[in-house]
């Protein structure tokens, strides 16, 4: 496992893993450590899970030893950083993915799972999710951990590049959750806003696969240089008072500079 330093200090911590097994284990260890520290500090941990296919092995790994035993399951409140507007039993649902791979196999108490009601019309799903978040974290939610993925177009959560066209820096000022439209089915989405993401105490971005290599290099270069003009959405996630960590497998890291790939030892 190689750890790229933060370079100019402003960039994220970058961790590159050689294969999916070690990627899953390292990410599971990272999640467990952040949750343990949050529970030690405040007696609770508020976690927002990522969608897409990348996190699946990480979720599964969390249900196995040593992480299963270490994670303080009863104290964790589970949320999602975005969701597709589909019913919960639809295989395209991010809730469905996490329920199958993580929440059902693990000792998660009733009432700790706060899903987006994707079966509702988007505006209603947004209102309901905002109310659910506020009921647990208040109206200025500071999540202990937000998990994110990244698309090949540099989107993250359901914040797609077109939202930032024309120099827009925050498409959803002053709100925590928003409805957006994806360029692919299912198009209707509900997502954390950029300000919600950047209020988090920890953001862990999980990226796997050669198809992400070019965009990962572009986004990490922007994050390390502090570039904010005309950058992909994933390069706009810079927690204001939190930690940003990127975990990539070797294929996704293939176009990173050597110092981030750990080639210099
Ligand atoms: C979603 C995700 C999205 C995802 C990326 C990467 O609902 O699809 O939230 O942001 O993380 O598209 O998806 P993969 O992990 O499937 O490549």
Topology:
Blueprint: E1 2-4, E2 13-17, H1 20-42, E3 45-49, H2 56-62, H3 67-70, E4 76-80, E5 82-84, H4 94-103, H5 122-137, E6 145-148, E7 177-181, E8 188-192, H6 194-198, E9 202-207, H7 213-225, E10 243-249, H8 258-261
Parallel strand pairs: 2-10, 3-4, 3-6, 6-9, 9-10
Antiparallel strand pairs: 1-2, 5-8, 7-8
6-phosphogluconic acid (6PG) is lined by residues 50-54, 82, 84, 94, 149-151, 155-158.
What does this protein structure show overall?
The protein has about 260 residues and is an alpha/beta fold. Strands 1-2-10-9-6-3-4 form a 7-stranded mixed sheet, sandwiched between helices. It contains 8 helices and 10 strands. Helix 1 crosses helix 2 (about 55-60) and helix 2 runs parallel beside helix 4 (about 95-105). The chain is about 30% helix and about 20% strand. Bound molecules: 6-phosphogluconic acid. The site of 6-phosphogluconic acid (6PG) has 15 residues, from strand 5. 6-phosphogluconic acid binds near residues 149 and 151.
